[in-house]
Give the backbone structure.
Amino acid sequence: MDLLDLILVLVILLYAASGYRRGLVAGCVSLAGFVGGAVVGVWALPWVTGQVARGTATATVLAVLTVLVPAAVGHEL
């Protein structure tokens, strides 16, 4: 496992613990919002990364934010 895998496992475990406290239905809906937001972020990723030079730190930060921000918004809805 590399660092990204460990981070994803940690995030999933934290959301699972949060869902356990809130209840099954609310947790499932919240998870669906998170996944839906991440899908929207991945869908928008080529357009966002096309606006900056590839291989730069700015491109990396924008790529991560493009996926995580919609995922976080979807989770909170």
